[in-house]
Amino acid sequence: MDTTTTKSTDKTTSTLTHLPAPEGVAPGAGYTHVVIGSGRFVAISGQVALDESGGTVGEGDPAAQARQVFENLRRCLAAAGGTFDDVVKFTYYVTDVGHLPAIRDVRDEHIDTARPPASTAVQVSALFRPELLLEVEAFAVLGSDQG
User: How far apart are CA 119 and CA 12, in angstroms?
Assistant: First the structure.
């Protein structure tokens, strides 16, 4: 099964096709195996639970940190002219894979769970500051200029 979504504004169009389970590949739980996009490619650097002044949000609380991370991602996407609907891939770096359910719950508040982006989760021994529990990077495809 594939799902295709086309987003248009007066000057831009992007198309994303989600292939949740290509033939011979088991379906993923909460992610899409393949997302094909046309438009402008946007890479968002890994975001962590730091507020606007660089202070840590939610020390020791993966859900609180995820809320800040996804708010930072939202702001970065908006700066590029996009939204979470444009995201084709998330990469999660977590200090404990046991935090993933809380992180996914927060993620699901921001994405269309019927057509989730591709994703990868990696457990790491540490991030650049010891109180940080996760870092999330995103790749998005936004409409390409037509004029």
Answer: 26
Predicted confidence (pLDDT) per residue in 63-82, tens digit: 999 999 999 999 999 999 99
CA–CA dist 72, 66 (Å, integer): 10
Please give the C-alpha separations between residue 86 and each of 47, 92, 129, in angstroms, as whole numbers: 17, 17, 29
Q: Which residues contact 101 (CB under 8 A, 6 or more apart)?
A: none
Which of the two residues, 21 and 141, has the higher pLDDT score? 141
Query: Which residue has 């939204």 as its token pair?
Result: 83
- Match 């790491």 to its residue by tokens: 124
pTM over the 0.70 mark: yes
Return all residues near 10 (Cβ < 8 A) that are at least 6 apart: none
pLDDT confidence tier of residue 129, bands split at 50, 70 and 90: very high
